[in-house]
Design a protein that fits this description.
The chain is an alpha+beta fold. The protein has nine helices and eleven strands. 42% of the residues lie in helices and 24% in strands. A hairpin with a 6-residue loop joins strand 9 and strand 10. Bound molecules: (R)-mevalonate. The site of (R)-mevalonate has 14 residues, from helix 4 and helix 5.
Length: 313
């Protein structure tokens, strides 16, 4: 019996979130420690059955509501590869926490696109996958910059500017990051929409902050591509970015607690990652076991509901 599987990583934004929606650059990297997985197997189900066990959902594509994100990406992908819905079971699972800035939506969509293409023995280039996923992101996240679908579909560190060809970042040294989860679900469209409303009232005020973020992101790119990356300099850039995100009212007491705890425990820099108001923060740590343990423990003591240690190579 025919069966295919496809996976997709989560992502974090190292710097530049929100400003990226306004045409400034941002740097994002895939996080392979968490992933979404889609498998498709032939079955006499009388249709295309979708099982999303994490969401406790089991339904037929033909019966899905028009606002269902999974059926939307399935429909778009089938149209793109010029196929009709086969009699199969599509199972989707994910270890990426939902609504916490780790790109869970983009990763789930990406794994579905890849699984469908594999099922029909077709190859879709990362740019095609990213474009399809962006269409779904647009439906559910307002006006996304497109950074999430890009980094997840290309599975590479990217220097992303909306509407421009993607630039891969050639990292010369590995970075150890600790991702701390506040446990607070923060849908991206809410924080993005709130900032947009405030920007509409006082555009110049906000544009100045976005310019300051742009300067940080450009320095971060140069730092990442250097042969010898100074962790303290990079951490300082993360801290400066966080100062601006806080001034933009995108942080939260839970995020601030985790960020402060990580810094006190020896992190070289720490900031929120993604939309803010909850979700995850990231901390840069020297690649030493004692340091990783100290920051991890400090994060849990400060209320983190989950911690991921990831090495970016
Ligand atoms: C979300 O991962 C990042 C934001 O900058 C929104 C976007 O880029 O679409 C907050």
């Amino acid at each position: 019996m025919k069966k295919v599987e496809a996976t997709s990583p989560g992502k974090i934004i190292l710097c530049g979130e929100h400003a990226v929606v306004y045409g400034r650059p941002a740097i994002a990297v895939p996080v392979t420690d968490v992933q979404a997985q889609a498998s498709i197997k032939m079955a006499s189900t009388g249709g295309f059955r979708i099982i999303a066990s994490d969401l406790k959902r089991d339904y037929l594509l033909a019966e899905a509501g028009s606002d269902d994100p999974l059926s939307t990406i399935i429909g778009m992908t089938l149209a793109q590869i010029k196929q009709t819905a086969p009699d199969v079971i599509l199972s989707v699972t994910s270890t990426i926490p939902l609504g916490r800035g780790l790109g869970s939506g983009a990763a789930i969509s990406t794994s579905i696109v890849r699984a469908l293409a594999a099922f029909f023995e077709q190859t879709l280039a990362p740019a095609e996958v990213s474009k399809l996923v962006y269409e779904v992101e647009k439906l559910y996240h307002g006006i996304p910059s497109g950074i999430d679908n890009t980094v997840v579909a290309f599975e590479q560190p990217v220097y992303f500017v909306k509407g421009q060809a993607i630039e891969r970042i050639e990292m010369r040294q590995s970075l150890t990051l600790i991702i701390g989860d506040t446990g607070v679900v923060s849908p991206t469209y809410q924080a993005v929409g709130d900032l947009r409303r405030r920007w509409q009232v006082e555009p110049e005020f906000y544009e100045r902050y976005f310019d300051a973020i742009e300067a940080i992101v450009k320095q971060a790119k140069v730092a990442l591509e250097q042969d010898r990356l100074s962790l303290s300099a990079f951490g300082q850039l993360m801290n400066e970015n966080q100062t601006i995100l806080k001034a933009l009212q995108l942080s939260s007491p839970e995020l601030e607690r985790l960020i402060e705890a990580a810094r006190q425990a020896g992190a070289m820099g720490a900031k929120l990652s993604g939309a803010g108001w909850g979700g995850n923060m990231i901390a840069l740590v020297p690649p030493k076991k004692e340091m990783i343990e100290a920051v991890t423990q400090a994060l849990f003591e400060a209320g983190a509901t989950g911690v991921i240690v990831t090495n970016l190579d």
